[in-house]
């Protein structure tokens, strides 16, 4: 989330933003005066939230600009928090305030993972014998001990 917080600090001065977090989601609130739902575009690309907004400014015919500092366009790319689920994001626009809800991915529940033994656990193929196998070294050692020369 710190990368998103850092990116918000780099937005133009004309854009005010709040980032809120609950246990289940993030809420990003952007003040975009003069922007409507019809003049804003919001999408996710490559793990980034892309905001494009345009505001209409009407200039009375008898006036000319002496100074103009309110931009007509806002283009911003903000990194999504790593635990945000972009597919389930929702956005609303009311009176120039854009609210974007980004649900968090549910954490895996804590549980013990059982470990099952394989078929040959504890023995290697070099040490495994079946009932019909005879180890020739063991047989000859037994024969010498008993005095059998078979």
Automatic annotation (TrEMBL):
Transmembrane segments: none
Lineage: Archaea, Methanobacteriati, Methanobacteriota, Stenosarchaea group, Halobacteria
Coiled coil (residue ranges): none
One Pfam entry name: HSP20
Positions of the UniProt region annotated as Disordered: 102-150
InterPro entries associated with the record: A-crystallin/Hsp20_dom, HSP20-like_chaperone
Record's protein name: Hsp20 type chaperone
Family affiliation: Belongs to the small heat shock protein (HSP20) family.
């Amino acid at each position: 989330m710190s990368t998103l917080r850092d990116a918000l600090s780099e937005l133009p001065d004309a854009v005010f933003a709040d980032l809120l977090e609950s246990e289940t989601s993030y809420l990003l609130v952007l003040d975009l005066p003069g922007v409507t739902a019809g003049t804003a575009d919001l999408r996710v690309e490559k793990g980034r939230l892309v905001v494009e907004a345009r505001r209409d400014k009407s200039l009375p015919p008898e006036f000319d600009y002496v100074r103009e500092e309110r931009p007509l366009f806002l283009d911003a790319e903000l990194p999504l928090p790593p635990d945000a689920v972009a597919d389930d994001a929702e956005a609303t626009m009311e009176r120039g305030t854009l609210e974007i809800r980004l649900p968090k991915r549910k954490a895996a529940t804590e549980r013990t993972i059982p470990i099952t033994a394989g078929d040959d656990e504890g023995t290697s193929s070099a040490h495994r014998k079946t009932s019909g196998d005879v180890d020739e070294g063991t047989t000859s050692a037994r024969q010498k001990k008993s005095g059998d020369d078979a």
